[in-house]
Design a protein that fits this description.
Helix content: 10-25%
Structural class: mainly beta
Oligomer: single chain
Strand content: 35-45%
Number of strands: 19
Largest sheet: 10 strands, mixed
Distance between the termini: 74 Å
Radius of gyration: 25 Å
Order of helices and strands: HHEEEEEEEEEEEEEEEEHEEEH
C-alpha cells in the first residue's frame, strides 16, 4: 500500500508538471512597434476633440520613447479638416466653436481622425454623430454586501449604488440610442480620523474601466430604461460627508458600442474556465500604407448629457444637484453646508 501511495503521489506530480505551460513575457517585434490612439469628439458649444497617442507599453525601453508626431487632424466626410494642438506629450486637443466658418459638428454627419506618427499616416474609419436623450433622473441607495476582510473572512460592508433613468428614443422616427456612461466622482476631503477638512478642495477622480457601462437601446423593450445600476462603490470614511457622482451620458455609433462592449467583457473576466479566451479588441485605426500593422485604440464621436447627484452618506439621502461652481473653499459653498 505504501508503494502504491508513493507511486500515485509521483504520478500526480508528473501530471501537474506536464500540464504547466511556460509563459513568454517577451513581446514580439510587432508589439514593440505598435501604437495606441484613443480619441473622442464631443459635440457641444464649443465642441471638443481630444486625442491621446502613445506607444503600446510593453515594459521595454523602446515603449518608453516619445513618439514623433507631426500632425493630428479631424476630418469630416466633405474633406474639411480641423487641426488639433499639442497640449502635452502625446496629447492633442481641438476646440471647435459653433461659429467656425468652415468646420461644423452636426448630427448625422461623419467624422474621422488622421495622424502622422513617425512618418507614417494613420486614419480611423468614419464615425457618425447621433443625438443623445436627456437623463430623467439619477438615484442613490445604500445596501449591504459581504466582502472578504483583511483576515480572509466575509464581513458585511455598506455600499452606495447609483441608478439612471433615461428615455431611449432620439428621433421622430423611433430611432433608439446606443448609450455609454462616463463616470466621475467628487468627495469632501477628510483628515486621518475621518473628519471633513472645511477649507480643502473636493477630491476628483475617475473610476477605472471595471465600472464601464454601455447599453443598446435597440435591445430593450419599451421607450425608457428605469433605475439601471451604473455604478456602485464601497462607502469608506474618506468620502467624508458629501459625495458627488458626475455622470456623462453619451450616444455612440453601433461600431463604437461594439468596441466598448468587448472592452467591458475583457475587464469583467473572473478567470473561470467557462469564459472564452481574451482576444485583441479590434481598433478602427489603420496604417494607410500597411493595413496589416496592429494599431490599438479607438476614435468615436458623441453628444453628451450631464447630471450630477449629491449623496449625503451619513444621512443616506440624495438629491440631483447642479454641477459645483467651484471645487475649492468648501466652507463657503451651499452644497457643503447642506450635508452638515
Amino acid at each position: 500500500m505504501k508503494r502504491l501511495l508513493t507511486g500515485c503521489f509521483l504520478l500526480a506530480i508528473g501530471i501537474n508538471w506536464s500540464c504547466r505551460d511556460e509563459i513568454d513575457l517577451v513581446p514580439d517585434q510587432e508589439q514593440l512597434a505598435s501604437i495606441s490612439i484613443q480619441s473622442q469628439l464631443i459635440k457641444g458649444n464649443p465642441s471638443v476633440i481630444r486625442a491621446d497617442i502613445q506607444r503600446v507599453f510593453t515594459y521595454s525601453a523602446e515603449s518608453r520613447k516619445v513618439l514623433p508626431i507631426t500632425s493630428v487632424l479631424l476630418e469630416d466626410e466633405l474633406g474639411n479638416e480641423f487641426p488639433l494642438s499639442r497640449a502635452a506629450v502625446g496629447y492633442f486637443v481641438g476646440v471647435i466653436p459653433e461659429s467656425h466658418p468652415t468646420f461644423k459638428v452636426e448630427y448625422g454627419q461623419n467624422y474621422r481622425l488622421k495622424a502622422v506618427v513617425d512618418e507614417k499616416e494613420y486614419e480611423s474609419t468614419y464615425e457618425s454623430l447621433s443625438p443623445v436623450p436627456e437623463m430623467e433622473n439619477l438615484s442613490f441607495d445604500v445596501f449591504s454586501k459581504n466582502i472578504i476582510n483583511t483576515i480572509g473572512e466575509f464581513s458585511p460592508r455598506r455600499f452606495g449604488r447609483f441608478r439612471v433613468t433615461t428615455p431611449l428614443n432620439v428621433g421622430t422616427n423611433g430611432e433608439r440610442a446606443r448609450l455609454k456612461w462616463n463616470i466621475f466622482r467628487l468627495s469632501t476631503p477628510v483628515d486621518e480620523f475621518g473628519i471633513p477638512v472645511p477649507d480643502g478642495c473636493l477630491s476628483f477622480e475617475s473610476p477605472d474601466f471595471s465600472h464601464l457601462e454601455v447599453l443598446d437601446g435597440n435591445k430593450v423593450a419599451g421607450d425608457k430604461i428605469s433605475g439601471l445600476p451604473i455604478f456602485e462603490t464601497l462607502l469608506q470614511f474618506f468620502y467624508g460627508k458629501t459625495y458627488y457622482l458626475v455622470v456623462y451620458q453619451e450616444s455612440v455609433s453601433e461600431s463604437a458600442y461594439n468596441y466598448w462592449t468587448e472592452l467591458k467583457k475583457n475587464v469583467e473576466r473572473d478567470g473561470t474556465q467557462f469564459q472564452p479566451a481574451v482576444g485583441v479588441i479590434r481598433s478602427n485605426f489603420k496604417n494607410v500604407a500597411n493595413d496589416k500593422e496592429s494599431v490599438y485604440g479607438y476614435f468615436y464621436v458623441s453628444a453628451q448629457d450631464t447630471m450630477v447627484i449629491k449623496a449625503c452618506l451619513d444621512e443616506e439621502t440624495f438629491e440631483v444637484s447642479p454641477f459645483p461652481s467651484t471645487i475649492c473653499n468648501l466652507s463657503n459653498d451651499s452644497f457643503w453646508k447642506a450635508c452638515q
